[in-house]
Design brief:
alpha+beta, Topoisomerase I, domain 2, 7-stranded antiparallel β-sheet, 33 strands, globular, magnesium, topoisomerase
């Protein structure tokens, strides 16, 4: 028997169909081990030795692989054809070697598409593991580990509230932050445009002013309204005739097929997909055998694929759409170490695959690949110059017409933040013609700041700078979102205060390591390892000998000194100049204090120098940091019964009220949905009186209590809960409504009982159990009736597939030690109960039922 290892069960199922009965295909479910998330996993003093640890949720699968490997005569490692795929194969081999389960023959095979022909051809041409790719993987993994586990603790201790820093992540964040600074420092410049609406032979067109008083008019030439009105008057007074008509032919060639980064960019522009969603859908299309491998830097297509594409073009269009010779594309990506084929359909005869997002992404890939082999588009650009009688003023009209669409009949590439081509059609005109002037317009404009990055433009910028690699962009951008360093609005990246604070810290104290040139140069060195041109431990040594002392130096500095440096560095943003010229650091509360950046237990904040007399503070770089100032504790009044002060304060988890001091103090969080929108003394008294007893339930005689909990306002009766609609209802609900509300909650199941599933996903591919997507207290989860698995933040519920759900359930089931403990304990107690049951066991049975009920 020959054992084949791939990453996913979907891939395993497909490949097993192509191979004979002598082959058994198992999935590793991705990586099987990694560096433990603790100090010492990489040892720089011992040749950067790495201590690997098996994933806890892969124990069952690794046992299955090892059991089968012991029976196999040959092991075939058929993971993905890139660096990560090579690493997974290497890990599998090393784990089996440690278990003494490695077959005598071990081969590595790679295929670019999961089709029968590609798989069988790969099986016929095995090779050994690529040691250079494995070294490159180890170097990257060690480097990212060393940066993360050395730099992040510095952040935590010197910049409270900061979450983490990473090698590529920090540089991507710097790009977003720098764009934010550019926008803030941008000064709009006024300019005016003058244009005339004209007509020739009944067809209207627009001509703009390009020469005035003998001077050439550029975009910013007319900067004042007075000049614009004078120019408008001159155009209105002049009689313009056509001086010359110039027509130029234009040719547009089709873009090459997709690479990983261009697919992410185009899917973001045209489909609105995030990079991570694009890669998830592409992975599924690849595993279904619909497209070639989706992690690639290459733009070339296999000769047979080019022939198939040309055949499909000939069948769809007439002969003019098929160029005489096949088009050949060359990879422009720097150090394209993963230069496999471009992303393309496996069959050009299939123009549709799947439904929903799968169908949309496949359609994009299909059209781009097919268009890449189509004829160029032929266009004609016409420019018409019109001059007045004095020759001092001139207008120009431009238009573009498509003579032959070529590839544009099928596909046109999207663009980021650029104006559309001037594609207006012009009437036929000749020298001496005098078109009628209908109207003259003078319009005011202001220059615009550079646009914020979209996912597409940020990926494009990273690729241009040579930072990171296309296969890592999706996860890099996802980390920035997960850390709340950025937020997405209208598909644009906005830098959060926390992201700006981290970037400022890194730029000030680790400038070299977040510089674009250094990061790109390090990528080149890592690529040299892939190509066998550099030794991985030497590359790490060169990095570590400078990086380690730098982190030690920063760690020795006092947090107050670091905060003082950041206060200077961030001054333009924290304290921008005021319009009235007054001191931007002046405290708005006490007037004579000076504001500055401080560091606290829960993060950075801005405070007055007159503390504690002046308690003005403003959060910065913390959740809720943009909510404005906190002017310190505020006395709302005295409690009508106790006479004690009720004070409004702000804490780590938001505003709250307090009455009394020390351990005896009574506190309550301030709800966000107060009817009047503010915290008044009356509301404070009500909140401090909670919980409120509504009354005794008419059936059970037990109390019904209304209160505010972690998840909002609720009713509680005999251990059962009912949700209330808002804070006001806690104090307004009566007995009848409370009984009805609790009964409705019981019918729905209350907390923890069955709810309607959000979606039925289908049967588990391995256990046949029905899998459902549910909404729980802590977010969406999937269940097969026996195991519940929470959805990671990286997976959108609407994008979840059956296979992803099955993998989550399998992983959760494998990582459930509590159940194992119960199984071990049960046999000891089961035996005496069985014996007892043979005798008069009537008394024991109720005891077991009672225990189960409890």
């Amino acid at each position: 028997m020959q054992l084949v290892i791939v990453e996913s069960p979907a891939k395993a199922k497909t490949i097993e169909k192509y191979l004979g009965g002598d082959f058994h295909v198992l999935a590793s479910y991705g990586h099987i081990r990694d560096l433990p998330a603790k100090d010492g996993s990489v040892d720089p003093d011992n040749g950067f030795a790495m201590s690997w640890e098996n994933y806890g949720d892969k124990g069952k699968q690794l046992k299955a692989i090892a059991d089968e490997a012991k029976k196999a005569t040959r092991l075939i490692l058929a993971t993905d054809p890139d660096r990560e795929g090579e690493a997974i194969s290497w890990h599998v081999q090393e784990v089996l070697r440690a278990k003494k389960a490695l077959p005598q023959t071990v081969d590595r095979v790679t295929f670019n598409a999961i089709t029968k022909a590609a798989v069988l051809d790969a099986m016929a041409h095995p090779r050994a593991l690529d040691e250079d790719l494995i070294d490159a993987y180890r170097a990257r993994r060690a480097l990212d580990y060393l940066v993360g586990f050395t730099l992040s603790p510095v952040l935590w201790r010197k910049l409270p509230g900061a979450k983490s820093a990473g090698r590529v992540q920090s540089v991507a964040l710097r790009l977003v932050v720098e764009r934010e600074r550019e926008i803030e420092s941008f000064s709009p410049q006024e300019y005016w445009s003058v244009a005339a609406e004209m007509e020739q032979d009944g067809q209207s067109f627009t001509a703009r002013l390009v020469r005035w008083k003998g001077e050439k008019i550029e975009r910013l030439t007319i900067g004042r309204e007075g000049d614009a009105m004078a120019a408008k008057a001159d155009v209105e007074a002049g009689r313009f005739t056509v001086e010359k008509v110039e027509t130029k032919p234009l040719t547009r060639n089709p873009p090459p097929p997709f690479t990983t980064s261009t697919l992410q960019q185009e899917a973001a522009r045209k489909l609105g997909f995030s990079a991570s969603h694009t890669m998830r859908i592409a992975q599924q299309l690849y595993e279904d055998g619909a497209i070639t491998y989706m992690r690639t830097d290459g733009v070339q297509m296999d000769g047979s694929a080019i022939s198939a594409a040309r055949k499909a073009i000939a069948e769809r269009y007439d002969g003019g759409y098929l160029p005489e010779k096949p088009r050949q594309y060359q990879t422009k990506a720097k150090n394209a170490q993963e230069a496999h084929e471009a992303i393309r359909p496996t069959e050009f005869g299939r123009d549709k695959v799947g439904s929903g997002d799968h169908a949309r992404l496949y359609d994009l890939i299909f059209k781009r690949a097919l268009a890449s082999q189509m004829a160029s588009a032929r266009l004609e650009r016409t420019t018409v110059d019109l001059v007045d009688g004095t020759g001092s003023h001139a207008l120009r009209a431009t238009g573009q017409v498509v003579i032959f669409p070529g590839f544009l009949a099928l596909y046109e590439e999207g663009r980021d933040d650029s104006d559309d081509d001037d594609s207006r059609l012009l009437p036929r005109m000749g020298a001496g013609d005098a078109p009628a002037k209908k109207k003259v317009m003078a319009d005011q404009h202001f220059t615009q700041p550079p646009p914020r990055y979209s996912e597409a433009s940020l990926v494009k910028k990273l690729e241009e700078l040579g930072i990171g690699r296309p296969s890592t962009y999706a996860s890099t951008l996802q980390v920035l979102k997960d850390r709340d360093y950025v937020r997405i609005e209208k598909n644009r990246f906005f830098a959060e205060e926390s992201g700006r604070l981290v970037t400022a810290f890194l730029e000030r104290f680790f400038e070299r390591y977040v510089s674009y040139d250094f990061t790109a140069g390090l990528e080149d060195e890592l690529d040299d390892i892939s190509g066998g041109r550099a030794q991985w431990q030497q590359v790490l040594e060169a990095f570590w000998k400078d990086f380690k002392p730098k982190t030690a130096e920063v760690m020795e500095q006092k947090p107050s000194d670091i905060t003082a440096e950041l206060d200077k560095f961030l001054e333009p943003m924290l304290f921008p100049p005021r319009a009235d010229g007054s001191n931007p650091r002046a405290c708005p509360l006490c007037a004579d204090g000076q504001l500055s950046l401080r560091g606290g237990r829960f993060g950075a904040f801005i405070a007055c120098s007159n503390y504690p007399e002046c308690k003005y503070t403003r959060k910065f770089g913390q959740p809720g940091g943009s909510d404005g100032a906190d002017t310190g504790p505020e006395i709302l009044g005295q409690h009508p019964e106790t006479g004690q002060d009720i004070v409004k304060k702000s804490g780590r988890f938001g505003p709250y009220i307090e009455m009394g001091e020390g351990k005896e103090a009574k506190r309550g969080s301030i709800p966000k949905d107060l009817p009047d929108g503010e915290m008044t003394l009356d509301w404070a008294v009500k909140l401090l009186s909670l919980p409120r007893e509504v009354g005794l339930h008419p059936e059970t005689g037990k109390p019904i209590v209304a209160n505010i909990g972690r998840f909002g306002p609720y009713l509680l009766h005999d251990g059962k809960y009912g949700k209330l609609s808002g804070t006001a209802e806690i104090f307004e609900i009566g007995m009848n409504s409370a009984v009805v509300r609790l009964a409705e909650a019981a019918n729905r199941g209350g907390r923890g009982a069955a709810r309607e599933p959000l979606k039925m996903l289908g049967k588990h591919p391995r256990t046949e159990a029905e899998i459902k997507l549910m909404e729980g207290r802590f977010g969406p989860y999937v269940t097969d009736g026996a195991t519940n698995a929470t959805l990671p933040k990286t997976i959108a519920p609407e994008a979840l597939t059956l296979e992803e759900a099955a993998q989550l359930i399998d992983a959760r089931a494998a990582a459930a030690p509590a159940k194992k403990g119960k199984k071990k304990a049960s046999p000891k107690k089961a035996a005496p109960k069985k014996d007892a049951a043979k005798k008069p066991a009537a008394k024991k049975a109720p005891a077991r039922k009672k225990a189960a009920a409890e």
